[in-house]
Amino acid sequence: MARVTAPTRAAAYPTGFWVLWWGTLINRVGEFVVPLLGFYLTAHAHLGVTQVSVILAMLGLGRFVSEGLSGPLTDRRGPAFTMIVALTGGAVMILALSFAQGFWWTAAGVLGFSLLSALYKPAASTAVAELTQGPQRTRAYNLLYWAINVGAATAPLLGGWLAGRSLRLLFWLDAATMAAYALLLTLLYPRTPRAAPQGDARTRRLLPRDALLWQFCLASLLFGLTYQSYKVLAVVFAQQGFSAAQYGQVLAVNGALVVLLGLPLGHLIARSGHPRWQALGAALLGAGFLGHAVAHTLWAHMVAVAVWTVGEIIAYGISKTIISELGPPAQRGTYIGLVGSMAGLATLLAPLLGGALLQSLGAGRMWVVIAGLALLAALLLLALEGRVQTRLARAAGTATG
After folding, report:
1. Measuring CA to CA, how many Å separate 112 from each of 42, 65, 169, 248?
2. Which of 87, 149, 219, 223 could bond to 182 as cystine, CB 3.0-4.6 Å?
3. Using N-to-C axis directions, what is the helix angle for 363-400 and 211-227, rounded to 10°?
4. What pLDDT band is residue 11 in, cutting at 50, 70 and 90?
């Protein structure tokens, strides 16, 4: 059998996917503002801790609202339209935010940016689902996930260097990369006519009456509440006497493992595409955060991060594939957007929940409770497994019929 070469594998993906991939990489490498926003608000805007916390919470609030609305918009106007609106609007809001002064204007700017830019994610996930099928779909999601994390690992380093020259430059360059991606989509992304909505009002409602979807949303929320609690790790590190540099070293384990293992693990999972992979990912996520409860050395925390990072990698691609096939094709964006909004809600709630648990229970018990949420997600996903497989088999039969 002839060996499959890299160019052949690359050619197996449609042109539209590579437009998404390169655009994502460009945009993520230039995502300077969000990772450094807390520093900017504290050091440059001179806002207090409570004010900064509220402003950062606007990112989660905007994502929760916007991702739920993005799905129906994508179903009606197509992923390209929604992504271009999100990127163009986000670029404009980033520029406006660079001139915002005072707490209220800054909070409004951050919320506006989040509401517009968060339209992008469900549309991008829908685009991948429309461009691919079968095991290739899971591999495509993981390729995109890899590009996201390469950018996430690069942007804070490059942004920190640029911030030493001009903080406002970060806003302008971030806006420029978003605009460049929007232009790339406008010029190169293939357009396909959208079919007219079919069915009665019940099948086109904003919130579908689908028990399996909402149970899947609950599992996603539980998973997200655990994952987003990594933000509380910085507080625990400070309490345990670790330095900021040591905290950075521990989090670097996450980025390094995603870059190193994201593609091979994603391709392995794509071979079977079994829903049980997601339950395994949730269980490993919980086990990793449980490790923080007993970790008191830097190496022990690194091991814990490594465990939950593997869980994150395993769950990511297969969950995207499952939700893209869970509902009817005409409502694919709606389903993806509703599940995505759970991640936004988790982004908003996790720091608040973690802070309350840390104050009332202490670090060790806090991690036990947080890990328990992911383990509950794993159990729920296992309970849903049979119905999910039946739904996926039906979708595959419809696609080939």
Report:
1. 20, 11, 20, 30
2. 87
3. 140
4. low
Task: For 351-392, write each residue's pLDDT tens digit.
Answer: 888 888 888 898 899 999 999 999 999 999 999 988 888 888
Number of Cα atoms under 13 Å in the Cβ half of residue 336: 33
Alpha-helix runs per DSSP H in 78-134: 79-97, 103-117, 120-131
Residues 62 and 210: their CA atoms lie apart, in Å, by 25
Distance of alpha carbon 341 from alpha carbon 382, whole angstroms? 22
How many whole angstroms separate alpha carbon 308 and alpha carbon 300? 13
- 177, 29 Cβ separation under 8 angstroms: yes
CA 309-314-320 angle, to 5 degrees, is: 120
Query: Within its chain, how far is the Cα of 192 from the centroid?
Result: 26
Tokens standing for 192? 């396909």
Q: Which long-range contacts (CB under 8 A, 24 or more apart) does 210-217 make?
A: 210/327, 212/326, 212/384, 212/387, 212/388, 212/391, 213/326, 213/327, 213/335, 213/338, 213/339, 215/380, 215/384, 216/322, 216/323, 216/326, 216/339, 216/384, 216/388, 217/338, 217/339, 217/342
What's the pTM value of the predicted model, to 2 decimals? Answer: 0.82
CA torsion sign, 182 to 188 to 193 to 198? negative
pLDDT over threshold 60, residue 202:
no
